[in-house]
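Researcher: We plan to redesign the surface later, but first we want a full-length starting point. Tokens attached.
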């Protein structure tokens, strides 16, 4: 797999094992119209590069906050914060007890790879 750079930040290394793509069912409710399920399937495909990069960064043993993950993988912190609960539903990451302060002085949750 070719390594790309984003805004001068090297891409996270490729994960050696294949990961299951998160289920589009988690992005749309059972009673939603078909168009919502189609949009959810497209979103899951578009978010896949984020999932891979986040999980590659989280290979480290210590817990990380979304801001730390974002800085290491070159993805905006708000995007990382959206992807982490999706990865949690797929049981690929878990919340760690405790918090850390962000660069703005706000508390943020810590995450670990399962």
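Model: Full-length starting sequence:
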């Amino acid at each position: 797999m070719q390594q790309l750079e984003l805004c001068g930040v090297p891409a996270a290394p490729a994960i050696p094992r294949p990961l299951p793509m998160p289920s589009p069912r988690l992005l749309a409710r059972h009673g939603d119209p078909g168009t919502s399920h189609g949009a959810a399937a497209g979103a899951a495909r578009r978010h896949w590069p984020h999932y891979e990069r986040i999980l590659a960064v989280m290979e480290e043993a210590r817990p990380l906050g979304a801001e730390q993950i974002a800085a290491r993988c070159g993805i905006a912190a708000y995007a990382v914060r959206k992807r982490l609960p999706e990865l949690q539903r797929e049981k690929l990451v878990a919340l760690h007890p405790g918090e850390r302060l962000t660069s703005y002085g706000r508390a943020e949750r810590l995450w670990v790879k399962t």
